[in-house]
Prior knowledge:
Layout (H helix, E strand, L loop, with lengths): L1 H11 L3 H8 L3 H9 L6 H11 L3 H7 L11 H10 L1
Amino acid sequence: MQDWLLDQLKRRGWSQRELARRAGLPQASVSKSLTGERNATADTCVKVAGALDVSPILVLTKAGIIPLQPDRDPRLEEITELIR
């Protein structure tokens, strides 16, 4: 999830602090998730999804909380979210 989330921040021109503010999370939580020091919780993923305006399912899948479903291509979900 770290690489995907860093890419999302870069695309938006956001800092970790900005993501934390928009998600209503402590910046330390965001930082630890991005460095891999701590795995993101389902609650954190849902808040991050809200801040990024993407599907919580996408973020939960990226975090490994929801297993990738064989009939769903994560690239298709990302494209759908980008178009939206």
